[in-house]
Amino acid sequence: MLDDKGSTLICIWGLSPLAHHDDPIRAILAAFNMRKELLKIDKTWCNVGIATGDVFSGVVGTSGSRKEFSCLGDSVNLAARIMYWPMKTATRGVINCDLRTKNEAMNQITFKYGQHCEFKGKSISIPIFEPIDPFDEWAVSEGTNSGYYGKIIPP
């Protein structure tokens, strides 16, 4: 989708009947791969927001050309807000996720705590986490330079 904020790609894991027990991990791995491939294209980057939760998915609209497939729900909105959050500090190429995604993927992926953020539509601040790709030198050379590359970070 191309809008006033640029190009936006919405990817959804876990829709019936193709749901898997490790869909949060699959989403994070796909984000790592998207970032890696986009770095090969000059001046191209992506920020990724991942949130885990229940959504409504299906055809919405009244009739004819007004019908379209869509996903609606709090998790969809939260993922979009998490994706746009790094842009407030002009940070590029960041993958962030919510607490539920972190909890469901932390047995196989290491995370670094970002901060608590306040988002529109939320009455409390939400903790944001950055998944660390241990095979990605980008995290050290171009990213946050946090020094977590190659280290095991306890959950």
CATH superfamily: Nucleotide cyclase, GGDEF domain
Helical run tally: 4
> Which structural class do you get from the secondary structure elements?
alpha+beta
Instruction: Indicate the CATH topology.
Output: Alpha-Beta Plaits
The overall pLDDT average reads 81
Sheet with the most strands: spatial strand order: 1-2
CATH class: Alpha Beta
CATH architect. name: 2-Layer Sandwich
How far from one another are the termini? 35 Å
- Number of domain units: 1
Low-pLDDT stretches are: 140-155
Percent of residues in beta strands?
A: 15-25%
Shape category: globular
Give the C-alpha Rg. 16 Å
Helix content: 10-25%
The major β-sheet equals: 2 strands, antiparallel
Question: Helix-strand pattern, N to C?
Answer: EEHEEEHEHEEH
Q: Kindly state the number of beta strands.
A: 8
Helix and strand arrangement:
Elements: E1 2-3, E2 6-7, H1 23-38, E3 48-50, E4 56-60, E5 68-72, H2 74-84, E6 95-97, H3 99-105, E7 110-117, E8 126-132, H4 138-141
Provide an overview of this structure.
The protein has 155 residues and is of the alpha+beta class. It has one domain (2-141): Alpha-Beta Plaits (2-Layer Sandwich), CATH 3.30.70. 25% of the residues lie in helices and 23% in strands. The protein is built from 4 helices and 8 strands; from the N terminus they run ββαβββαβαββα. The strands form 4 sheets. Strands 1-2 form a two-stranded antiparallel ribbon. A two-stranded parallel sheet has the order 3-6. A two-stranded antiparallel sheet has the order 4-5. Strand 1 (2-3) and strand 2 form a beta hairpin. Residues 140-155 have low confidence and may be disordered.
